[in-house]
Amino acid sequence: MHRIAVLAIFSLLLSGCERGNPLTVVKAVAAGVPSLAPFFEENSGLGRDTTTVRSQPVQASLQQGDTPGLYGGSEQPTVCDVAKLKRFLTDPRNHKKAQAWAGVLNIGTDEIPEYLNRLTPVLLRHDTLVKNHDYKKEKAVPYNSLLQAGISILVDEQGLPAVKCSCGNPLRPFEGDTGRISVQFEDGNKKWAGYERKSVLAVKPAPRKLARIALVDVQEPARGIDRPVGSTGEKDTTFDTKKRRTVPDLAGTTFARASRELIDAGLAPGYAGQGVPSDGARVTATDPPAGAELPFGQYVMVTVAGGGSSTSGEESGPTTTPPPPSSGLRTPPTSTPPKSGSPGSSGGRPGKSSSPPPSSSSGRPGGSSSPPSSSTAPGSPSPGKSSGPPSPPPSTGAPASGAPVTSSAPPPPPATTSAPATREPPSSAPVTTRPATSPAATSEPATTEPVTTEPATGEPVTEGPSTTVAA
Question: What pTM was estimated for this model as a whole?
Fold first, then answer.
């Protein structure tokens, strides 16, 4: 009787937590499976998915849009026919559909061609959470979905998923708690091979507009693809993803600046513990340490002093650093854009690899006078400023104000010729920092309504490996 009473009390406590922080229902969308209510007919050749891609393991469930190796590509870049989508949405016969489509992206129908010109086709390398949209009764109907790795999408200038290529459905960032989702596999979307709850992620915007996106070939991972933003593959250059990149010395810098320097070096910043460190948290160590050499897209675990903001908005204690992975290309999340008072990123530093394909250029994120970021790979053209196309529509993250870079100048000089970055001296004691003024993408509660009337039919994902779950 005593055991039964204890179990009953425990069940009541759990149900109370569920009511306070309910699961968000997410519909699984498998590669190659047609949508039931698409904006664009699936069999019309607008785009095609790759069904042989397995989702890559990740360190945490929130990733920044310029994280090296976040997206993939192939030698057949025509996975998305942007010109055909443009013709369809500008056809007067499809005006109502175009109105609904443009409304999701907060643009007018007359801005559709210019907006599409700024998007870039990529392939998902991870099972990715998004806010999807069907077209029903002349309206865009939103729903949360999990897109399988291998699905072709268009991403915007900050690396956010914008359009699902095969059906033209507009996409927006996932707004729920990535650690409290219930994935439903239905309507022909059976649970795919390689699906793992810990590999599910959501994407937050890069702090600056990207000029280029460094992709990993999904068929040949040793081959990197450097694709200018707004191009569809005709201007691609390639680089060797196995070429080693040097981990910079980051001790004493802020977490935001450390993330920027790692991305510039072609490495992915990671963090230990359940909470995302605040932008101003001081870095005490990295694993592997400064001077270590890693292949493109490999993550570097960053340890900070003091508390860090978790995905639920709470603060966590000092983090610890786990051992580095033994193998595999893994892509962790990065920090939120730094505060206006935080130091900007470094464009170069002694000891950095002589020709890394960074995902962004130097400069302070978010500043109106800072240059846009790039992801120039070895042998690729150096970006130059364009004539200043209009800025993209607002996104859920803080938009960057720099203009994208599209010119083709000679290859950039080695990073060792740049001036050393000025570094803040390391603190002798842990520094307590205030949370960043720009909230992290996952700090907001899930906007979907609680699921109380019917249970989820799919496999619930209760807690990601690096997500704080509110009780």
Answer: 0.65
